[in-house]
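User: Fold both of these, please.

Assistant: Here is the first one.
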Amino acid sequence: MKRRTPVATALLTLFAAPAVWAQQVPATPAPPAAAASATGELARVVVEGESAKEFAGTSSTKLGADLRDVPQSVTVLNKSLLESQGATSLADALRNVPGITLGGAEGGQIGNNINLNGFTARTDIYLDGFRDRGQYYRDTFALDAVEVMMGPSSMLFGRGSTGGAINQVSKRPTLKGSTELGASVTTNGMVRATLDHDQAIGSDAAVRVAVMGQSGRPTTRDEMKNRDFGIAPSITVGIGSPTQITLSALLQHNHDMPDYGFSPLNGRPVQVDRNAFYGFTDDHTTQDVGALNALVEHKISATSSLRNQTQYSNVRVNAVETASQGLGTVGAGGFTPLSPAGISALPLDQLWTRLQSHDRVIKDTSIFNQTDLTASATTGGVTHRLLFGAEVGHDSYSNQAYYRNGSCNGVALNPATGTSGYAACAPLLDPTYTASPDTAPSKAGNLSTSGATTLGAYVNDTLEFNDQFKFVGGLRYDRFSATVNNTITSATAPARIEQTVHFTSVRLGPLWQPTDSQSYYLSYSTSFNPSLEQLTNTTGGTAPLPPEKNTAYEVGGKWEPYKGLLALNASAFQITQDNARNQDVSGNYTATGTVRVRGARLGASGQLAHGWKVFAGYSYLDASIVHAIAVGTEGMVPGNTPKNTATLWSTYEVAPHWQLGGGAVAMSSRFLNNTDTVKVPGYVRLDATLGYHQHDYDIRLNLFNLANKYYYDALIQSDGGRAVPGTGRSAMISGTYRF
């Protein structure tokens, strides 16, 4: 292959967005693969003498094979990108996507809590196309890719997806056969090992198993320690035949230390040592995950196919967690909470914080079935690519709350009949690291149980009028019925609450493609969020609120110059959420709010020259709570929504077998709450990598947070807003052996 001159670098000043630059290489040698488009096109393998248009789409049959035909921004992060960055968790992977911010263990939620385009995506995480609503921390050891679809997508996925949806794509068996062993160790003391074994067991069948184990400190933060392991076996029969069946599973166990970060002070997170830990040494979050998947794909004819998939998941969480909640002073009368004005008048060495327990045992179970029929037909000179689908499923959920009521300086922190769970207190500047005191025994609180049934039917048509003009149109009808029960009742927690929602979602988008390397689109899409969507009564009261309704408009373009070696994209959009839930002065919730996000995304990814790969991304979000009755929120910026985010990652083959690279993640300031009273400063984090590659093995050094920047990674809006600091400077050395 001829060397490419880096003239395309000038385009990077205009277009930037994260995407994946390379698919896994096929069994036969091929030149370096181009980057995936930041709008979602997976990397192409460019073979000398063949068209650069030969490439794969996402895993979703709902989106179609050619993502140029998708009037929506889609980003695909694949294995090669994540390996070069040393990313091992879903949270690490999603830092590549501007417009995504991370949340901590918000309220009753544990695991990956994500904001996408200014809206929560807590229940918009998917595993192989199925809603992955279990509360656990997700690893990448069993994944081939992560797909991020921007904007409301209820036509594709049903309820939720206000800001978009995130789909994890599992590794699947192939006939190529390979074994890959990996090991890594960090300066924090995290040791990790992985195995990926893919083996043919016949002319049309194969098995694959991915295994992961790790133990140690995930960050520089004090007391952080994880012990995790997982296995993901799968088998496929009928490869290359009209009927193919795949059975797979994900089994994972996590035993991690929770991190609730710092309380706010004077309008920002309290300024203490970033490694300070406010909790007990026996805190833990233990998660057991089991997911079983059965997929049957049948090719009916050259133009039609049928796909049926069933997934069962069971996630159990045992959480003993403690968080800093409220600042004050300690004296003979115990802990005295102070108002913000009183706190600001005192030096930090005179302040203490209450330690509040957040203990619960959570059980999440889901079983869903999806059937998709795809077909192509031509009528009246118009080609139709049709999708007909149906989904049925049931979710069940239980949350047994516990609390630990203790004392501070010998004085009870809670009323005799209280359940607040204040377990102890700690000096703000010098917290002591001890086990939970015997004076704060665990007691059972409310048991919340719930269930929901989902029925959905959808149809989508991509109409091709000629080589240049296409139109995408889709409808989906959903019926969502949920019930929540509580054993300890109150005005905001009734004994039983029920909700049934009927909603029709729309997806429309014309496309103009004047050449094979250009695609321009407009799109309109809708989605809905029932108030019992998370199977909890998040708004209190005895009657559920009507669903939030979301509408999005997007205009954009996708370009692929240099025979697909470079992918560019740009888009502008507006997402409006009506019936947004907010509290009035009496503490009751109403569905009277409006939240609007206007923004833009720019992206470039690909190969600028032989051996030089780069992707970059930028997102601008102008978010506003347009209307609200909650005091102090109207006109404010929604929490955890920065106006500007950007990412850059680049690697270059400086010599045969040697690769040097690095990049940055940048984020402007954001607020911890919807009243905009606590602000977290912006930051730029720098990372770097050095890799040595041979046919049978790789060795890589990753350096994280080179400048040792003190920044905040995840935000938690509850209790006035807490912020979790990111890791300090650290390094990881890893090796991979293939045979």
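And the second sequence with its predicted structure:
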Amino acid sequence: MTTEMGILPTLRTELSLHPGPAGADGSPSWTIRDPVRNRFFRISWPAFEILSRWWAETPAKIAEAVSAETTLHPTDDDVKGVAEFLVANQLTRPAGPQDTQRLVSRAEAEKQSWFHWLMHHYLFFRIPLVRPDHWLDRTLPLVRWLGSHGFQVTTMMALTIGLILAGRQWDLFVATLVDTFSLSGLVSYGIALTVVKVIHELAHAYTAKNHGCRVPSMGVAFLVLWPMLYTDVNDTWMLPERKKRLQVGSAGILAELIIAAWATLAWAFLPEGPWKQATFVLAALTWISSLAINLSPFMRFDGYFIAMDAMEMPNLHPRSFAMARWWLRNVLFGLGTPPPEPLPAGRRRALIAFAVAVWIYRLVLFLGIAVMVYHFFIKAVGIMLFVVEIWWFVARPIWAEVREWEKVKTTIMAGTRIRWTLGTLGALILLALIPWQGSVSAPAVMKGSRSAALHLPFPARLEAIHVSHGQAVKPGDVLMSFTAPDIALRKAVAQARIDGKTAEFEAATLDPLLRDRAGIVQEDLRKAQAELAVLEAEANRLAILAPMEGRILDILPDMQPGDWLSPRQKLGLVLENSAPIAVAYVAEDDLARIQGGAGATFSPHAMESASRPGRVQRIDPSPAKTLPDGALASVHGGDIPARVSGQTVIPDGAITRVTIALEGPPPAHEEIGTISIEAENSSLIGRLARSVMVVLIREWGA
């Protein structure tokens, strides 16, 4: 960088210097623009003053000039530090063989193997499609009105009215959203997403151009082969006003919210038809895309750049990660090293918390992407890409941090904090290895071992209710009486025919002239009598009888004599006087740990009900394909993840039905709760290994 004589390197002539925003302490800053690489570097006031006197050529002369002409008092080392920064970021001109060799060495170090190049470009790469700068200059006057105060006020009014009207039709909005979850609906969302994202990127480009920035390219970026549009607005780093940078960063989200506002208003007013459906798709998509995705600061989307500009913290992710790593090393090893940059304690804690949140978010996201990639491709390719995802996004950062610990191993081992860290780690490992978990918990429902629902055979009118809720009944007891006027009428008609045919038959037996018809009349009489017997049987079915000994429960409320009731209505329930059972649904990972006859305890969710002991009576041989006890499903507020298909509830995971015989009297009604079953002791590590093996065996055989 410098010769033995202390001569400083020469700056590249194509660099330009621009005023930057004020720092957190109010001090001015400047931005160095490298047009060749389209990169920008923020420098402080002392660095600017030093660069302003770079012509002095030596650190001593520059430091002396700055001290004489400003209130700053830099040292020779400060000037050398600026020179090192310039050289490290390739902002100087090579002045001899030494600099040339340094650049060659750096280029060699940056070379990647074909494997690393392929992995990097598989994970993320960009394809510039257009260079829109001149076109944006020509068309900017046509769209400038979209940023006017009048249009903003009008949009706010449209947003307010649209939300009020949508709120009044919320049930219809939700029902329409569910209806769009189909193949045609997904195609509509795909088309709408493409249109909205083009408008989103144009909003960034036009806003940057409106503030005098250059937009060199627009195109498509691929994150794990997932396409996303992008716009190069790096020139906004030259804008000293934070407000303008925030306007550029938030332009895409604001454009989507404008679309959402007007689409919501249009949906509320349009009649049923394709246009109403189209505006609904636009409204639903833009609300979700803007609020749930683009505003997230955890990935490098608009929310991240907005957060950087709002906090005046360029490179927010790297700086917060560096601060969190420093905090982690001090907590684990007590190194006592200074933070990577001097910041107030409050902001330092905020950066650490933000970094931890980003790590957790990315861990969940990248694991999900890895699983998706595994299932999307064929087995062999999916496994390879899954491993790459886990290594690059999860294991590689952890390994890089461990290697940093290795560099200061001597200092770490010399401290006292390492003993506490290793002791805590050992205790956690021991806790994970000890098989202290001796039970399995599962959602369950308690019910009578046998019950019978009461229903009418056909529509009828209630005559009387002969029992009350909770009353003991015996087989054959009449519980309710019903009548059907049409049956009574048909019985009267049949009886009249019987009477007539009886009289006719008696006359035929006495009158020789009618004796030939006696056989025919007798056959008609038998038919009439058979019809009457059928009607009598139908009428008798209208007396609801107890099918077994037990108690009558859940009598249909508000029934009054004279009410007409349908066969679809449940009139009540007869619960047999026998011990109750609990039906539990055990996860696949825990099934191997329980055996028939194992002890169990049912704990109802209702606070007024007591727990009941019992024993495992039956374990189904295969997983449940449906969930007949729908109250346990997540779609109905239960604990079992499930979905509804037609009239059937289908569990999302592998669960097996286990029947437990409980002690005590049968419950007055079904009760939801949790069953705890005695099981083979297992450790956390053992359960994790078993789960992994189950997945491997299942996927290997799939």
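The longest strand covers residues 437-448.
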